[in-house]
Amino acid sequence: IWLEAQANLKKVLTGQTFSTWIEPLKFLGNTDEAIILEVPSSFFQKYVIEKYLGMIREAISAVSPKSYQIEFQIVEPKPEPAAEPEPKPAKEEKKEKDKDKKSEFIPNLNPKYTFESFVCGASNQFAYAASQAVANKPATNYNPLFIYGGVGLGKTHLVNAIGNQILAKNPKAKICYYSSEKFMNEMINSLRYKKMDEFRNKFRKMDLLLIDDIQFMAGKEATQEEFFHTFNALYESHKQIVVTSDKFPKDIPGLEERLRSRFEWGLIADIQPPNVETKVAILKKKSDQHQVNIPDDVALFLAEGATSNIRELEGMLIRLEAFASLTGNEITLSMAREVMKDIIVEKTKEITVEMIQKQVAEHFRIKVSELKSDKRIKTLVVPRQIAIYICRELTKSSFPEIGEKFGGKDHSTIIHSVRKIEKQLSSDPDLKSTVEDIKKKLFM
Ligand code: ADP
Ligand code: MG
C-alpha cells in the first residue's frame, strides 16, 4: 500500500518536495488500524505531520479500501517526553498494568535533554551548576533542589539532564520524572482503583524523584497532601528530590505552607531570561543538532527578534530550516526576514543607506565620499557594489532612491551592481563572508 501511495504522491508533489519529505519515509509495517512509517528525526516528523499528513492520508485512502491512521517512528526510538497529554483514565489503567509487568520504574526521561545539549550562560549558570552538583552527588548537599524560572527557559531540560546523567552512571538507579499533573492523575487513579498502597510504595522506593511544574499542584489539597508524605519519606531516607516551578516558592498561590517551607530547606536556584549571546549560542547548538548551518547574521537576527522563551526561539529555527529545505536554498538573512516577517515585527534595528555606507567604508578603509563617487578604480568599485547590494537587501529603498544616495547614479547602474554581487556570491566564498561580516556588524 505504501509504495503505491508513495508513487501517487510523487505525481502530485514537486520532485524536490517529494525527495526531501516523502521518499525518506520508510514503511515499517502496519497493524489493523495504522501504518507505521519511519522518519529520520523528530524535526522531520513534526514537519511532515504539519505539512503533508493530510496528503499522505489521502494517498493511502486512494489505494486502500480501509482507512488507516498514520504513525511515525523516529529512527532512534525515544520515549515520549512527559509533557505529552495524559492518556484517558481507562487506558491509563491498562498501561499501568503493562508497566507493572516490566518494571515499576519507568524513568520517563527525554534522552535529548542532557547537560551536553544545554547551553550554559549567565542567565542559567546557577541552576546549571546546582543541577550538575546534584547529578554528581545526589542527596548530599542540595536536597531538595528547587529550580524556578519563566516558561521555556529550560527547567524541564535541566531536570531531565539530572536524571539522564545519573542513569548513565548507574543504569539501575530508580529514577522517575513526573509532571505534577501526572503525579496527580496517577494518584487519582490509584485512589479510584484502591491501589493507594501500591502507589505509595512505588514512590517510596525511588532513588531520585523529579517533579516538574509544581505550581500546578496549587490549590489541589489532596495532591499536595500526598506529595508532602512522599516528600518526607524520600527525604528521610536520604533520597534526592528535584522540583521545578515557574515561581519562587513564596509566590506560588495556593501552595501549602508546610510544602513551601520544605522547599526552602534545600537549594533554590533561578533561571533568568537569556541574553542575546546565550540565545545565539543556543541557536548554533540546535542548528548543529539538526545538521543545518545558520549564518551568524541570521542567528543574531533571530536572537534579537525573539522573546526570551527558548521554545519559541527553537520554533523559529525549525520554521526557517523547513523553509530553506523546501525551497532548496541556503539560509540567508533576507530569507529569515521574509520567513519571520509576521513573527518578528520590526523589532530589528532599522538599517539605513547611510549606516551601510559608513560600515562598508570602514570595512575597506576608504572614505564614504569615495564610495559615493564615480571613480572607477577597482578598490572602489567592488566596495561600492557591495554597499549597493546590501542597501537593496537590508533597506526598503528603491533603486532610484539608492542611486540618489550614491551621488546620483542612475537606476541601471544600481541594478547592475546588485546583479553582479548576487551572481558572484554563489561562487565566491570570500565575497560571501565579507558581505556577511558587514551585515553582522550593522546589526550590532
Ligand atoms: P521550561 O520547562 O522551563 O518551560 P524547557 O526545558 O521545556 O523549558 O525548554 C524549552 C526548550 O528550550 C527545550 O527544547 C529546551 O531544550 C530548550 N532550551 C532551554 N534552555 C536551553 C539551553 N540553555 N540550552 C539549550 N536548549 C535550551
Ligand atoms: Mg517545562
Textual characterization of the structure:
This is Chromosomal replication initiator protein DnaA. Residues 141-269 form the AAA+ ATPase domain. It comes from Geomonas silvestris. Its main location: cytoplasm. The two termini are 54 Å apart. It contains 20 helices and 8 strands. The chain has helices spanning 2-12, 15-22, 42-63, 89-102, 125-136, 155-169, 180-192, 196-204, 221-236, 257-263, 276-289, 296-305, 310-327, 333-339, 353-364, 368-372, 378-394, 399-405, 411-425, 429-443; strands spanning 26-30, 34-39, 69-74, 145-149, 175-179, 208-212, 240-245, 267-271. It is of the alpha/beta class and 444 residues long. The strands form 2 sheets. Strands 5-6-7-4-8 form a 5-stranded parallel sheet, sandwiched between helices. It has a 3-stranded mixed sheet with strand order 1-2-3, covered by helices on one side. β6, α9 and β7 form a beta-alpha-beta unit. Helix content is 56%, strand content 10%. The radius of gyration is 28 Å and the shape is flat. Bound molecules: adenosine-5'-diphosphate and magnesium ion.
